[in-house]
Design goal:
Elements (H helix, E strand, L loop, with lengths): L24 H4 L3 H5 L10 H8 L22 H7 L3 H4 L1 H10 L10 H10 L7 H5 L27 H8 L1 H9 L12 H4 L4 H4 L27 H4 L7 H6 L13 H5 L3 E4 L7 H5 L15 E4 L1 E4 L15 E6 L17 H8 L5 E3 L50 H5 L23 H4 L8
Antiparallel strand pairs: 1-2, 3-4, 4-5
Amino acid sequence: MTLTDKVLIRLNATRGIESYSDIDPTHASIGCAGCHGGLAEVDADDDISAYRAAHTEMTRDPSAIGKDGCSGSLCHGDIVRRNETSIHSNLWGEKAHVAMRNGYDSFEECPVEIQEGFTKDCSGCHTTCGQCHVSRPHTAGKGFLEQRVGYSHQFIATPSEENVCTACHGSRVGDDWNANQERVPGNKPDVHNDFGYTCLDCHQEDFHGDGATDADYISRYHVTDLPQCVDCHQVDSDDNAFHAQHWPNADATDGADLACYVCHSQQYNNCNTCHAGEWTEEYVEAADYSSHGPGGYRVYPQFKIGRNPVYGETDNPHGNSAWIAIRHIPVSPDAFKNWNIPEWSVDNFAAGATNMETWKYTSPHNIQRWTDRTLVDASWADTTGQIYTSDNCSDNCHYHAGYGNSDYYLKDSDMERDITGDDLSAEIEANKNTSLGDDPCFSSGCHLSHN
């Protein structure tokens, strides 16, 4: 260890910051060694020797899983125990899908090569207590949130939205929420953002998890108490012609049961590669698409509607919508190639993936009241009355001939050549329950075939 590794806690006596206790009196009472280990007092001949002696057996991140830091002396014992098995710390959804993509029922059943490959390529996105509450997460650039006098190494009970929430969840949630014009040009910030809401106004679930049962999650949508639009907007279900016809109730007794995002979402980023395998080499020169992260991966803004393959399933968190907004999340055949999986081949991977959609349910954070589906007439945005009726409100979105926009809907032809120009026809079978097919009027289930 060298002196360049030293953590700087900025003090200034003239500003009343003479010791760490003036920055964070609670944690100062524990002392540096109380959390990080090492020696609080040393006897050495010079500063360098003292520095090295003090840092003997020091723990850089005492909040990492398996460390006693934040749970020591029963400080945050229950929270730490739950966080150790939380989806934020373990990426249960990613693990479940890596297992399913490779033909296994659970991540624990995967060969050691898959587990080690996941750890190498994917696990860097997990967080620790300190990466949310005292510094930036490593994937967001790490370092203290504030380097000003009196702030560095200050523990923050409510993490920063900019430096933590959207710093990690940036390329989709952050770009949607803030309308990043470089990556989603033409979008407006989410209407809730405009009204001053923050992530935690809606996301009131316990981010530390519920305990060991979190390991059963196969996606973030199964997290307990995940927010839903109807938590605040239930009273709006019959306030206009749109809602009266389409508000979801999982049995279509009031119409076609649309997810809120089908009408109120703007375009959002899709990804056209996986984060493992050869992606950094393959897409580093993708000059026509925005990039993000080391080397850059290809993204493109788009909006698509698809059928919901789990419609009507009462135990599914989004089973009450027949039509959903879908995001393209393909996995390239070489995604796991550098993991040295035994007997790996493109054919084996393709066979194991045919039952997993690559156009999947999405919940964009870019909500607007008026979108290119709801605003059929520009004058509607300025009226407080209801001038749209069941005869004209569908003009911009229904697939029927003569009006509407068929480009909104996922069809087999979109996979034969997608927006990026890639041939994705191998995905057609995997998305047969989401796509409208090659003859949308009949294959979507809206009309019976004449055959």
